[in-house]
Design a protein that fits this description.
The chain is an alpha+beta fold. Helices cover 40% and strands 18% of the residues. It is built from 16 helices and 15 strands.
């Protein structure tokens, strides 16, 4: 971006922080980091004793990115890291549509976010919460905080006293479980390598991954062949499963996975479980979860690649209704004329813009800034 655009955007950022208070829990115990338009974290090891000093810094410096530590420290601005005096860390999950390897990304690239990207990463976030964090780990909804990342996904914070002291290795075990890493096929099907025996396996009521696997298969069987092919089942086998789906579903419900003949069933089910696990694994940045010193975006601050708010979302029901391109808009008054090189269609504030190619247009300020910050447009002279 040219200097004129940078100064204009910084003025909008400054105005946002003048008008909006960003409240941070335990602010005096957090380490902060700040980014510019090139790096999301260019400076770190900052600390603020109270909200007033934090707000003053945001207004005076208008940083494009604001991050804070998942950890709480005795001396959050101390260096090196071991001098900070670690107290404990929240458990954080970072879900990004880029990690889902969606078909739409082959068309629009990884830096763009379409409606399908948003819907897919929302579904993965709900799956994390409703399939794992609440039923398997026993966290209550009140202990789970969700916020939009400001760009391509969501951050999920688990705030629980027992979690705070978990080591990095303990957090790795949690992320491995959620991502389905190192699943042993024999844990699901003890007799899978024994010839001449009925293949008994998990039921939908089986706790943990077993029940999840059974329910996932039933759900896909109730859809179509494509849903089965997505998890590595060959077209001919998918067709056979769908033709006999009533018997197969009944069998899975009873724990009998041998209702139709599947050649090389050990290899077959290993492939299916692996493909189910990969999708879950890719949807979570495990480095964020495992790192007790990680810096993550401060809720309700601005994202310097979009101009959107990293909006805090108050409940799961609110999250289900949340639309970032409507609900996370920071600037609504005014318009800007921009030169657009090439941009996909966007829908913001319930209005459709584009697609554009080599065009100069006047757009509402939120759409214009979004395109400029996405580096597909420049301010018109």
């Amino acid at each position: 971006m040219d200097e004129r655009a940078i100064q204009l955007i910084r003025n909008y950022i400054r105005d946002y922080y003048k008008k909006n208070d960003v409240i941070v829990d335990d602010i005096s115990k957090r380490e902060f980091g700040f980014g510019d338009f090139e790096r999301k974290i260019a400076y770190r090891h900052y600390a603020f004793s109270d909200q007033e000093r934090f707000k003053k810094y945001l207004v005076e410096n208008a940083p494009p990115f604001v991050s804070y530590s998942s950890a709480k420290y005795v001396k959050p601005d101390a260096r090196p890291m071991e001098n900070k005096g670690w107290i404990g860390s929240e458990l954080i999950f970072d879900l990004d549509s880029n990690d889902l390897h969606l078909e739409c990304q082959k068309k629009h690239g990884s830096s763009w976010v379409c409606e399908n990207c948003f819907n897919s990463v929302k579904n993965e976030t709900l799956r994390l919460i409703e399939d794992f964090l609440i039923p398997d780990f026993g966290f209550s909804e009140s202990e789970i905080k969700i916020n939009f990342s400001g760009n391509r996904g969501y951050h999920v914070h688990v705030i629980n006293d027992e979690i705070l002291k978990l080591t990095s290795n303990a957090r790795k075990e949690i992320s491995n479980y959620i991502s389905g890493s190192n699943i042993n096929i024999k844990a699901f099907f003890p007799s899978i390598e024994q010839r001449g025996t009925v293949l008994m396996g998990p039921k939908p009521t089986t706790p943990g991954w077993g029940g999840r696997f059974a329910n996932s298969m039933i759900k896909r069987l109730n859809l179509d062949e494509t849903a089965l092919e997505e998890i590595g089942i060959e077209k001919s086998e998918a067709r056979k499963l769908i033709r006999n789906k009533a018997a197969v579903i009944l069998g899975i419900t009873m724990g009998n996975w041998d209702k139709i003949n599947i050649p090389k069933k050990a290899e077959f089910w290993k492939t299916v479980i692996k493909n189910l696990s990969i999708k879950q694994s890719d949807s979570i940045d495990r480095n964020v979860t495992n790192d007790i010193h990680h810096l993550i975006r401060v809720p309700n601050t601005l994202h310097g690649d979009t101009g959107l708010i990293a909006k805090s979302i108050n409940s799961i029901s609110e999250f289900e209704r949340f639309n970032p391109m409507n609900d996370a808009i920071a600037f609504k008054e005014g318009s800007l004329k921009v030169n657009i090189t090439k941009a996909e269609k966007i829908i913001m504030n319930n209005m459709e813009f584009g697609p554009f190619e080599n065009k100069t247009v006047e757009l509402p300020i939120y759409a214009a800034l979004y395109l400029v910050l996405k580096r597909v447009a420049e301010l018109a002279p």
